[in-house]
Amino acid sequence: MKYWLVKSEPFKYSWQKFNRDGSTFWDGVRNYQARNNLKEMKKGDLVLFYHSNEGKEVVGVAEVTREHYPDPTTEDAKWFVVDLKPVETLEKPVTLEMIKSDSRLQQIGLVKQGRLSVMALKKEEFDRILELSSSTS
């Protein structure tokens, strides 16, 4: 199993809307590195859902339910989507500031490549963000 983080601007597609929908295909990726990350996703992989621009926080966990296939929003065959379903809402959101200030998350893509919309995470990074969500401090 691999671990990922996807970003969405809440006014375009929020965690709340994702939960109401129950599933979605992750479209609109037009960056080659992000596209390659989508192609690497496997059914059952876990994905952190990050609200970008507004909020700047990890708000939930999703799961890949269908591996990459052609993006139905474009006729350009070089772009792909994956299907995701929501798994759980985080106990408390984990802000970008919390991530940046955590010594164990200094190498995370969210800090190193802030503009990338789909990124791989190490299991330790994924687990640490979940830990930050449930911590009482």
Description of the molecule:
This protein is an alpha+beta fold and about 140 residues long. About 30% of the residues lie in helices and about 35% in strands. It is built from 5 helices and 6 strands. A 6-stranded mixed sheet has the order 2-5-4-3-1-6. Strand 3 and strand 4 form a beta hairpin. The longest helix has 12 residues, at about 125-135. The radius of gyration is 14 Å and the shape is globular. The termini are far apart.
How many strands, what sense, and barrel or not for the largest sheet? 6 strands, mixed
Span of the ends, CA to CA: 30 Å
Name the assembly state: single chain
Q: Number of DSSP strands?
A: 6
Please report which band the strand proportion falls in: under 5%, 5-15%, 15-25%, 25-35%, 35-45% or over 45%. 35-45%
Write down the secondary-structure element order.
EHEHEEEHHEH
- The overall pLDDT, averaged over residues, is 95
Fraction of residues in helix: 25-40%
- Radius of gyration, rounded? 14 Å
Coarse shape: globular
